[in-house]
Amino acid sequence: xxxxxxxxxxxxPFAGSETIxxxxxxxxxxFLINGPTGAGKSSILDALCFALYGQTTGxxxxxxxxxxxxxxxxxxxxxxxDFRLRGVDYRxxxxxxxxxxxxxxxxxxxxxxxxxxxxxxxxxxxxxCLVARKVNDATAELQTLIGLDANQFRQVMVLPQGKFRxxxxxxxxxxxxxxxxxxxxxxxxxxxxxxxxxxxxxxxAVSDHRQHxxxxxxxxxxxxxxxxxxxxEALTPQVxxxxxxxxxxxxxxxxxxxxxxxxxxLQRQFEARDQLAADKARHLEQHAxxxxxxxxxxxxxxxxxxxxxxxxxxxxxxxxxxxxxxxxLAQAALATQRTNAEQAQQALEVARQRQAELPxxxxxxxxLGEFIHKSQQLSELQARFKTVQATWQHAxxxxxxxxxxxxNIRQQGEAISVNLERLQTEFQQLASAPAELSxxxxxxxxRQELDELARQARExxxxxxxxxxxxxxxxxEAEHAQLHATxxxxxxxxxxxxxxxxxxxxxxPCPVCGSLEHPAPAVDxxxxxxxxxxxxxxxxxxxxRQARQGAERHHHQLTQQINYNTEQAQRLAxxxxxxxxxxxxxxxxxxxxxxxxxxxxxxxxxxxxxxNTAREALRREWGALDKQLKTQRSEVEKAKEEAxxxxxxxxxxxxxxxxxxxxxxxxxxxxxxxxxxxAQLEKAWESAQQMLSTSQTQLARAEEQLRGANERIxxxxxxxxQVQTEWQTALQASPFGDEAAFQAAQLDDAQRQELTRxxxxxxxxxxxxxxxxxxxxxxxxxxxxxNMAALNSLAEAAQVEENTxxxxxxxxxxxxxxxxxxxQKLATAQTAQAELExxxxxxxxxxxxxxxxxxxxISLQRFVLGVLLDDVLIQASExxxxxxxxxxQLVRREDPSKGNRASGLELDVADxxxxxxxxxxxxxxxxxxMAALSLALGLSDVVQAYAGGIQLDTLFxxxxxxxxDQDALDQAIAMLSELQMGGRMIGVISHVSELKEQMPVRxxxxxxxQGSSVEVKGALL
Length: 1021
Hints:
Number of strands: 17
Coiled coil: 239-273, 313-354, 406-491
Strand order of the largest sheet: 2-1-4-5-8-9
Structural class: alpha+beta
CATH superfamily of the domain at 2-147 and 955-967 and 983-1017: P-loop containing nucleotide triphosphate hydrolases
Low-confidence stretches: 897-902
Domain Rad50/SbcC-type AAA: 6-277
Helix content: 55-70%
CATH topology of the domain at 2-147 and 955-967 and 983-1017: Rossmann fold
Strand content: 5-15%
Largest sheet: 6 strands, antiparallel
Protein name: Chromosome segregation protein SMC
CATH architecture of the domain at 2-147 and 955-967 and 983-1017: 3-Layer(aba) Sandwich
GO molecular function: ATP hydrolysis activity
Keywords: Coiled coil
C-alpha cells in the first residue's frame, strides 16, 4: 500500500484543510516529517491510520476527540486518502462522529460517523463506489484489500513512538503477551488449554467411575465382587423353591374363591326372587290410579274433536274486538287533526304580517357590516402596532443583553485557558504513573506469590518429615510381615509332612520319594499351621507392602512439590530483584502511592476533558452570539420603521369612522341581534307554511282510517254470528252436556303424553316382574340357600397363605434381580473404566508435554514464540551490527537449568568488545534506540513474512533520533536508505536539525495560534 495524497480537515492541530501530495516526494522516497513539538507530526500518521481503519496510530485517542479546537464550527472534521495497492488506485473518506451547528435555528446537532470507499481510474476520476456510507463496511473492505487489520498495520507499516523500546526492555512474561498478539499464536495456547481440559475431564471421569463402582457395590450392600458371586450362587435355588410354594398356595386360593363365588351367585338368586315378589305386590297397588288415567284419556279424545269449532269462535270474537278498538282510535285522531289544522292556519296569518319587516332589517344589517369591517381593520392595525412596538423594544433589550453576554464569554474563555495550561502541566508530570503502577502491581503480585510459596514450602517440609517417619515405620512393618508369612508357610509345610508320615506303612513305597523304608518320619508338632493361617499371613504381608508403596509414592510426590516450589521461588526472586528482600508493606505502600497518582491523573484528565468541552461550548456560543448580534442590529432598525408606518395607517383609518361606530364590540352585538331577528322571521314563515301543509295531509289520512275501521266492524259482526251457530250445533252432537263439561275434559299435549306414558310404563313393568319371577321359580325349584360364612372363612385363609408365599418369593426374587443388575452394571462400568484409563494415557501425556510439565518445562506456545523470536533477532542483529559498527548483536537468553517457566523469551545483547552477553537494560540511551529500531525493523520484516507474503511498500517511523550521535545517525540513515532502494517509501518523524541536511526531501509542519499547516519541500526525483 502506497499513499498518494492525504487531505486533513479540522483534524488534530490542523484547523483548516491541509493536503499532502506524497507523489511530489518522488518515487520510493526517503523523507522527513519535521516540525516543533506539538505541531502535529504524529497527527499525520493518526490521520493516515484513521482514514484506513477508523483508529489512531496508538489507538489511545478516540477519533471523536481528534477535532481541532481552532477549527470553524461550520467546518466538518474529515480525512481523505488516495492510495495505490497492487497497481489499482483507491480513495477513502472518513468523518468521525461530531457536533455541528444546526442548519436552521440555534444549537448543535450530532453528525454521525460515515465512510466512503471508491476505486479510481488512471486519471483520478471515480470509477466505482465500493462503500457508500457504512463505517464497518468500509473497514472490512479495506482489511480485505490490504490484507492487514489495524493492529498489524501499526506493527509493520507505522511504528509508533516508544512502543518498540517498551518491547526491547519488557520482561519475558510481557514479551510473551506482545508476541502472541503480533504473530497470532493464540491457537497454540488454545491447544494447550484444550489438551489440559481434556486430560482433566478424563481424570475426573476415571475418579468418578471408581466412585461409581464403589457406589454400585454399596447400593447392593456388598463388600466385593466375590461376595456378589457367592450370594448369587446361593440365592438362585431359594428363589425357585419360593416360587413353587407360591404357585401351590395360589391354586388353593383360586379353588376356595371359586366355591365361594358359586355359593354367592346362588344366594343372590334367592334374594332376587324374594325382591321380585315384593316389587310385584307394590306395583299392583297402582291399578286404580292407572284406570282413572285411562278414563281421562278417553274424555280428552272426545274434546279434541270439538277444538276446531271452538277455535273459530274465539278467533271471530277477537277480530270484532280489534276492529272496535281501531274505530275508537280513528275517531280520536280525526278530532285531533281538525284542531291542528285550524291552529296552523292561524299561525300562517301571523307570520305573513311579520314578513313585511324584513327589508328594513336587512338594510340596517348591511350598514353595520361595513362599519364593523373598518373597525376591525382599525383594531388589527392597533394590535400590529403594539406587537411591532414590543418587538422593537424586546430586540433592543436583547441586543444590549447579548453584547454583555459576549464580553462575559470572552472572560470565561480566558480563565479556562489559564486553568487548562496548569492541568496539562500536571498531567504531563503524571504521565508515567499508569505504567509504573502496572509494573509495581505485577511486582506486588509476584511478591505475594513468593510469600505464598514460602508458606507452602514450610508446610511441605513439615509434611515431608511426617511422610519420612511414616515411610520408615511402614518399611519396618512390611519387613516384619514378610518374615512372619515366611515362618507360617514353613510351619504349614512341616505340618503337611507330619500328616503324610501317619499314612506310611512298612514295605509300602513312600508317595514322595518312593522308598520302601521310612527310617525318620516326621513327627506331629503342637504348632501346626493351617492353610487359612498361611493365607492370612500372606494377606497381611501384601497389605503391609501396599501401605509401604503408598507411603513411598506420597513421599516422592512431596519431594517433587518441594523441588517445584523451590524453582518457582527462585524464579520469582530473580524477577523481583531487590524487591524480594524488601518488606511487603514497603511495596504495598509504593503501589498505593502510585495508585493515588493514577487516580489524580485520571481526575486531571477528566478535568482537562471537561475544560476542553466547556471551552468548545464557549467558542460555539461566542460564534453564535457574534453572528446573532450582526443580524440583531438590522432587525432593530426594521422593527422601528415598521412601528412608525403602522402608527400612521392607524391614525388615518380612525379619522374615517364616526364616533359612535368606533366600538366594534357594541356594533358586533347589534349585528348579531339583527341576524338573529331576521333568521327568526324567515324561520317562522317557513315553519308556518310547513305546519299548515302537514296538518291538512294528516287530517285527510285520519278521515280515511275512520272509514276503513267502520267497514271492518260490519264484516266482523256477520262472521261472529255464523261461527256461533256452528259451535252450538257441534256441542249438542257431542257427549258433553254443556260448555263447562267440554272445558273440563280438555288436556294439552304434555298432559296427554304424561298420562299415556304412566299407563304404558305400568303395564310394561308388570309384564317384566311376572316374567322374571316365573324364571327364578323354575331355576330354584330344587335348591336350598348356601352357608356363606363358612365359605368366606375358607377363601380368606387361602388368600392370607398366598400373600405370605408371594411376599417371600418377591423378596428373594427382588434381591436376585438386584444382584444381577449390579453384576451387569459392574461389567459396563469396568469396561468404561478401562477405556477412560487408555484415553488418559494418551491425552494426559499430550497435556503434560504441551503445557510444559516435563523436561525443561517449556509450553507449546512458548516454544513457537522462541522460534519466531530467533527469526526476528536474526533480522534485527544484521541491522544492529552495522549501526553499532560491529559491536552489538541481539541474542535470546536460554537458561532452562533454573527451571524458569517463562524462560526463552528474555533478550540479551552480545558485546563483541568484552565477549560477554549482558542485559539490554544496560545499554545507553542511544544504544537502546539503535537496538529498539533494529528490533522494530526486524519484527516488521518477520511479521510481514508470516502475514501471508504481503508486500509492504511504505514504512513510517515515529522515534526519537535525537538520542543518536552523528555516526550512529549516519548509520541509521544509511540503513533506511537501503530499505528505500528496495522500493519502499520511508517516512521519518523527527525534529532533529541534523536530519534536515541528510534528508532534503521533507514535509515541514508549522504550528500557529490559528492551527498547524504543512508544506512539502525538497527536490523531486
